Amino acid sequence: MNPTATLLPRTLPWAGALALLLGAAGPVGAQTTPPTQPPAGTLAASQVATGPWTLQRAIDYALEHNLTVRQNQLTAENGSAVLRQSKAALLPTANLNGSQTWNYGQSVNPLTFEFQNQTTRSNNFSGATQVTLFQGFQLRNTIKRNTLDYQASLGDIQKSRNDLSLNIASQFLQLVLSEELIRSNQARLNSTQQQVERTQKLLKAGSVAESNLLDSQAQLASDELSVITAQNQRDIARLQLMQLMNLDEASQGGFQIQVPELADPDEQAPLSEDPAATYQTALTLLPEIKTAELRVRSAEATVDVARGAYLPRLVFGGSVFTGYSSARTVTSVGSDSTARKTTFFVEQPGGGPVIPLNVLLYQRNTTVLSQRYWDQLDQNLGRQLQFSLNIPILNGLQVRTNVQRSLIGVQQARLNAEQVRLTLRQNIQQAYADALAAQRQFGASRRQVEALTTAYRNAEIRFNNGLLNGTEFNIAKNNLATAESTMIQNKYQFIFRRKVLDFYQGRPLAL
């Protein structure tokens, strides 16, 4: 079994790719959301990508330039805007309206409501305000729900930052591992090259058979292939790290990391962490736990919003309106007058004949004019106050259906929160088991390397003296190479597993 198959938690989505890079055999287990890091400190300022990159510098740069983190920040900003809008819904609404209309032919005068057959121009102006006095507490419950959603979105930002930090640490260690494998394979290649040169001299002296030289040359070709394979893995690991960091093209050419000094697992104290205690600590630190709980409370607030539709709605409103019509006229009485002759017939007392009586009457002259614009606006001014009460009785069972759906949403949110906690506990248990196994495997691998090193030196002496053929010597050498590679990989498995456990306990990611 290749020990590199357990370098990363099986539930991490990037475990499969990294396991393949390390030469892991067999499929990676079920994948879920990776564990996240407790809230980190303030981001470092934007920095120029020059010189070797440390792990902390790579994390800071990635957090500042990663697109997923930016998307989550925009999502949180959108949630903040939604929250402000729900708070503003408690305020009264106020609107002004104005219109200008031309009527041709038969129409109704908008001010006198009389039919007329003429071309008129009219203006209507109004201002209205409205405030909701009671709406089943829906407005306040909506504010409560949106506040919880906004807080949850802030947790999503922190979770994406923590996920990215852990991914960067994983890929950084993968690059360090690749560099060490290159050095190991290059050392074996140099040793094989020297062995070929010695074998050539021994062959010329007649001390060994030609088959020994052929076997050494074949081993040299295999070692060259191992170096090239390790270099390819190093290049892929570097590329993936730069992609995670979203490094610009100008900085990719000279990208190098600062290789830290990492102690071997057997030089460190045995694992003493209690998975149960680590789980309890992680529950108080990881943002996804708090986010899941906030979304449960948000779902419960959604139920309260839906139930509020059962209650009556009381709204108070007021408006002011006025208007103007070109068809409206006024009669103007002039200062001059016109004399008019009028005849009256007067009956005689006692039944005598009717006597005509001519009387001269004076009547003032009048003129019909269109009423002035501002006079109409002043005279047509009207005001209105209104209370509106809406009592829901039957609306196609919409309210009841919405309440049932929101109750189901609460159950889904609770199950999701339980799944998040379950995944966290499983990840901690798996990380602890893998770290303990990697530490034990490293100790066994080191003892194996020590034993195979002694066997290889003995085989080399025998091979140089012609007492061992090339095939058996190459087998001894390849066994040692495999053991050394396994020991190196076990070392980095343990380092990463240990960092994962530190991560769950609130310690920063540092090498």
From TrEMBL:
Cellular compartments annotated: Cell outer membrane
Keyword Transmembrane found: yes
Family matches, as InterPro entries: OMP_efflux, TolC-like
Transport found in the keyword field: yes
Position of the signal peptide: 1-30
Organism: Hymenobacter telluris
Family named by the database record: Belongs to the outer membrane factor (OMF) (TC 1.B.17) family.
Name under which the protein is recorded: TolC family protein
Lineage: Bacteria, Pseudomonadati, Bacteroidota, Cytophagia, Cytophagales
Keywords noted in UniProt: Cell outer membrane, Membrane, Signal, Transmembrane, Transmembrane beta strand, Transport
GO CC terms, sorted: cell outer membrane; efflux pump complex
Database matches in Pfam families: OEP (PF02321)
Superkingdom of source: Bacteria
UniProt GO molecular function: efflux transmembrane transporter activity; porin activity
